[in-house]
Amino acid sequence: MSEKLRAEQVTKRYHNVVALKPTTLSMHDGEFLTLLGPSGSGKTTLLSLIAGLTEPTDGDIWIDGRRVTDESSAKRGLGMVFQNYALFPHLSIYENIAFPLRMRRMGGAQIDAAVRRVLELVHLPHVAERLPRELSGGQQQRIALARCIVYEPSIILMDEPLGALDKNLREQMQTEIKRLHVELGITILYVTHDQEEALSMSDRICLMNNAQVEQIGTPAELYFRPASVFAAAFLGESNIRSAKVLSTGPETLLGSPDGSTIKVAADPGRRANEEVNWMVRPERLKLIRESEEYENIRRGKLLDVVFVGGITKINVQLDDGTTLLAKELTSGRSLPERGQSVALGWSAADAIVLPPGA
């Protein structure tokens, strides 16, 4: 696939404050890439540099093979969708969508056809003559997206576009945006702090922390093979523990501070006596019977069972005083009582070694 965007070693400093450390990022045509991270991680700064709203201190930006570092935002051929919709309150929905086409001096018949087409695409053909205030928040966001799509920008930039919507509307809009992305083959660079949003919508995720890129990969890669303790902890719930490498081979054997051992996925890069962290996701842990065999088994007492709809969370206090969190699909099966002795099991392939530190 052809490269659509490249940011090459871009940085941004405000006097003594480093807003973005040297960062390189690329996107291919038709990709949905999400910049994910906590507040202050640098994701919005990077988006602003790509959009041309802010000048980089160092580095270059390329769009469609053209260096645009010194070009204005208007010349970059980009579209932007914001959290606050940015619709003109005094113009009808039709005129809001037509506005960027009129600015490009398109003919009346072309404008009419284009506006009608995108209204159909977002499933709102009946609201053309209404004002923005007559629409719900979800409908306004779909119109903001339609206004962006209508002039066929090279890349659509979306900065926390669903932050103002309630949970149900947000999930509906996630589905709608992903549908349009697939249907139209558009390239989208998306910014959010919402982990579930990033995991469910993205082709790839660029996880940011402390003004730099922490890890880039597919949602599955970041979730099941995080490259750091931060990545493991930020993307969903996880069980993270410290240990020392005892041996390597087909499996890596770790020693816990309490003297027990853990088998984890093979990691040839590790060496004996190295201090590391290891991680296993809660959904990989199984509440097991005494007769069941697993490569890793830990025993303890059931602390709590939390029902959260389709998922049940199970907290177990181990014999060494630490706790492990397990998750399972809610099935209606009877679970042990609080305080009862239980065992958790998991396979070596489901646990991975992380480098020490945060």
Present the secondary structure layout.
Blueprint: E1 3-14, E2 17-28, E3 32-36, H1 43-51, E4 58-63, E5 66-67, E6 78-82, H2 93-103, H3 108-121, H4 137-149, E7 155-159, H5 167-184, E8 188-192, H6 195-201, E9 204-209, E10 212-217, H7 219-224, H8 229-234, E11 239-247, E12 251-255, E13 261-265, E14 275-280, E15 286-288, E16 296-308, E17 311-318, E18 323-329, E19 341-346, E20 351-354
Parallel strand pairs: 3-8, 3-9, 6-7, 7-8
Antiparallel strand pairs: 1-2, 1-4, 4-5, 9-10, 11-12, 11-14, 12-13, 14-20, 15-19, 16-17, 16-19, 17-18
Helix pairs in contact: 2-3, 2-4, 3-4, 4-5
Could you explain how this protein is built, in words?
This protein is an alpha+beta fold. It has two domains: 3-233, P-loop containing nucleotide triphosphate hydrolases (Rossmann fold, 3-Layer(aba) Sandwich); 237-354, OB fold (Dihydrolipoamide Acetyltransferase, E2P). The protein has eight helices and 20 strands. It has helices at 43-51, 93-103, 108-121, 137-149, 167-184, 195-201, 219-224, 229-234; strands spanning 3-14, 17-28, 32-36, 58-63, 66-67, 78-82, 155-159, 188-192, 204-209, 212-217, 239-247, 251-255, 261-265, 275-280, 286-288, 296-308, 311-318, 323-329, 341-346, 351-354. The strands form four sheets. A six-stranded mixed beta sheet has the order 6-7-8-3-9-10, with helices on both faces. It has a five-stranded antiparallel beta sheet with strand order 13-12-11-14-20. Strands 15-19-16-17-18 form a five-stranded antiparallel beta sheet, with no helix packed on it. Helix 2 runs parallel beside helix 4 and helix 3 (108-121) crosses helix 4. The two termini are 35 Å apart. The mean pLDDT is 92.
